Amino acid sequence: MDVKGKNFKKFLDRQQVFESQYDAKSMQKQHAKGKLTARERIDILFDEGTFEEIDAFVTPTKSDGGFGKIQQSYGDGVIIGHGQIMGRLAFSYAQDFNVMGGSLGSIHAAKISKIQDMALKMGAPIIGLIDSGGARIQEGVASLAGYAAIFYRNVQASGVIPQISVILGPAAGGAVYSPSITDFIFMANKTSYMFVTGPNVVKEVLNEDVTFDDLGGAEVHAKKSGVAQMVYEDEENTLMGVRKLISYLPANNLENPPEVDIDKKETKDIEEKLRDIAPDDPNKPYDVKDVIKLLVDKRSFYEIGELYAQNIVVGFGRIDGKVIGIIANQPKVLAGTLDINSSNKAARFIRFCDSFNIPLLTLEDVPGFLPGVDQEHDGIIRHGAKLLYAYADATVPKITVILRKSYGGAYCVMNSKNLGGDFNFAWPTAEIAVMGPEGAVAILYRKELAASKDPAGLKKELAAKYREEIANPYVADEKGFIDEVIDPATTRKKLKSAFLALENKYITNPTRKHGNIPL
Amino acid sequence: MAESKSNGSKVTKHKLIALSSSKKQFEFSNPQEKIIKYKGEKVKVRLSEDPNGFSYIVWKNRKYMLDIIEKNQNRYTVMVNGVWHTFTIESPFSLKRKKLLEKQAGVSTSESIVSPMPGKIIDVFVEEGAEINTGEPLLILEAMKMQNEIISPIDGIIRKISIRKNDSVMKDDLLIEIDRR
Q: What's A497's DSSP letter?
């Protein structure tokens, strides 16, 4: 730097000390664990050269002299700042495991709060890169207060700006609650953990032996607990995944999601393959993702929570360059039934889309709610109600296409006409009724079946009659519960014009502090 | 790196590695330079498309038909001349990390397939001792009036089959054990 004749000595000295904090040794420490440093992560997340750090030179509070030592360093173990992701503003904080294990002291927390406040004021997404040992024990209650301040801001920003947490190391104790309030959690497989109490405490209290990975590893949270939506095999892909997600989201709740130009030749509006996807035999499964991929712009489907509650598929996609949120029953898994986990997964996704002006497309093939003692005792009633509530409460454009089964309470829940569906289409293969043929026949013709010499044959005959007369889309169509029965091949074309017609949809729910969703 | 930074004005060239399921490494760079390095040898490749929409790759003056079957995160399934290959795209660091973590974890030896729900076994496609690849069907389980294909999560060899055709199973019952290959 050309600083002739200027007294820049202190400025440069500080700069030098600061840079020495990120020397080869500190890199080596992280790399040896298969992890990147906080600064490398920031470089991948943001467009090249766009990140501007703030508060790089704040120092930790001085120790009160008593317990433990506080490592003096610039930045107090967290990098905060703003930059661009594919040309759009975003804020971020990145915890630095090399400074006191990324532990959260009061200054560290104040920095995170500061960047949260800025993101909210500016109306831009915030991304937290988390790699921290937890609250800084030396600072006691001050660091706990710091966590609470972060949680408070997470809640204030919820539904106003997209908040994304990326777990790239440990997140233990109170540290897990900030990510869990945010909209999406990404984890890097095998090097990140989340738990409220760690394996040592579990061992002490319950005498159970469990490894870090089995207790709170990425796979556990992606498959079993549903805490993490996205798991990637390495950090670079994780951060690239965040960039991709951001490309679907508006900067805040007042904007619409970004549109992209598409190559019109790439995706066909009339797609004859759609006629053959759903098998004629209603007991044969198929992969609903094949349907989604043919309906949205080529390669635009981005699935959320792929490994959790796989009986429902949710994710973002684009139709003619415009972002939509997709909720689809998955006949391939658990026959596409609704259960506790799938209701929770879909409800949360719908709430997110509604907050951020993302129209909803529901692809329905649902035989009903999953029966069973487990489900009833664990509260499928109250969890299923969340999905129902989320659909009914959403004011964004809502379109449903019934692909095949649509039975009972599940018909009502999956964005039916009277729940507020704007357009409800059905394929000719649709079966809409209070219950499936076998169940209905068993109830309505119990006496006849008992008296019959060939009950199986009679049952089959009656079931066929039931399908013909009741369980088809035409009854619903004639009564106006379905707007149109459509040729599957024309689905994308129909969706395009329907979403276009709904572009200026405006409705408001009654004024109130907030509704009381059955949490 | 699967999702490349396309909008940045300044773009640095990144070295990337395509790692096949049989651990073969092919080096290339992003943005594309159309040179692939394999076992230290640099080979020029060319991609072309015919009017019918089929894609071809030209490698060492031979033309191979090419199609991307599936892409998920950094995992690709491609078909070259009718044969399927799976790859992951790695950066030098992620490759190092992969090796490091594999070493730390040791080799996990087997996978137990349990029933995801109560149901009835309709068909079993494999025999003990048979080789199986990720994504190939093991058996069909009928549950909720639907026939569900249970597929292999790993490449391996069938060690033990604990069920037979027409058996009824409960949730979490052990079905098949597979040794990793």
A: H
Residues 6+ apart with CB under 8 A from A135: A103, A104, A143, A144, A146, A147, A173, A174, A175
Which residues in chain A have their CB less than 8 angstroms from residue B10's CB?
Answer: 48-49
Q: Rounded CA gap, A326 and A361, in Å?
A: 5
B143 is written with which tokens?
A: 């549950």
Report the pLDDT averaged over residues A135-151.
91
Which of the following CATH numbers is that of domain A274-434+472-501: 3.90.226.10, 3.30.300.20, 3.40.190.10, 3.30.40.230? 3.90.226.10
Do residues A92 and A127 lie in contact, with contact meaning Cβ atoms separated by under 8 Å?
yes
d(CA B140, CA A284): 11
Parallel, antiparallel or unpaired: strands A322-329 and A312-319 = antiparallel
Contacts of B149 in chain A (CB under 8 A): 285, 332
A interface mutation test: which of B71, B73, B170, B172 has the most A CBs within 10 A?
A: B73
Of residues A348, A308, A326, A305, the one with CA closest to residue A517: A348
SS3 of B75, please?
strand
Say whether A274-434+472-501 and A9-246 share the same fold.
yes
So which residues of A are the catalytic ones? 173-174, 409-410
- Name, in order, each residue with C-beta under 8 angstroms of B43's C-beta and a sequence gap of 6 or more: B35, B36, B37, B59, B60
Q: Cβ–Cβ of B8/A48 closer than 8 Å?
A: yes
> Mean pLDDT for chain A?
91
In this prediction the ipTM stands at 0.72
If you ran DSSP here, which 8-state letter would residue A100 be given?
A: G
Alpha helix (H) residue ranges in A420-454 = 437-444, 446-451
Residue A294: CA count within 13 A, CB half-sphere: 17
Q: Give the homologous superfamily in CATH for domain A9-246.
A: 2-enoyl-CoA Hydratase; Chain A, domain 1 (3.90.226.10)
Inspect the interface and report whether the beta carbons of A284 and B147 lie closer than 8 Å. yes
Of B3, B143, B146, the CB nearest to A243: B3
Is the Cβ pair A34, B90 closer than 8 Å?
Answer: no
Note the pLDDT of residue B5. 43
pLDDT > 70 in chain A, percent:
97
- The conformation of residue A176, written as its DSSP 8-state character, comes to G
Of A156, A157, A96, A90, give the one whose Cα is nearest residue A126: A90
pLDDT of residue A506: 93
The highest-confidence range among A277-281, A409-413, B154-158, by mean pLDDT, is: A409-413
B1/A331 touch (CB, cutoff 8 Å), yes or no: no
Q: Is the pLDDT of residue A201 over 80?
A: yes
The domains located in chain B, with CATH, are: 14-104 (3.30.700.30), 110-180 (2.40.50.100)
Which range among A289-298, B73-82, B105-114, B127-136 has the greatest average pLDDT?
A289-298
Q: Give the start-to-end residue ranges of the domains of chain A.
A: 9-246, 274-434+472-501, 437-470
Chain B residue closest in CA terms to A213: B105
8-state DSSP, A55: S
Query: CA nearest A138: which of A128, A146, A150?
Result: A146
**Residue in chain A lying closest to B142 (CA):** A283
Is it the case that residue A439 has pLDDT exceeding 80? Answer: yes
**Entry field: residues in chain A:** 519
CB B97 within 8 A of CB B84: no
Better pLDDT: A475 or B2: A475
Q: Is 50 exceeded by the pLDDT of residue B7?
A: no
Instruction: Write out the two tokens for A133.
Output: 């040992």
Identify all chain A residues contacting B147, using CB atoms and an 8 Å cutoff.
283-285
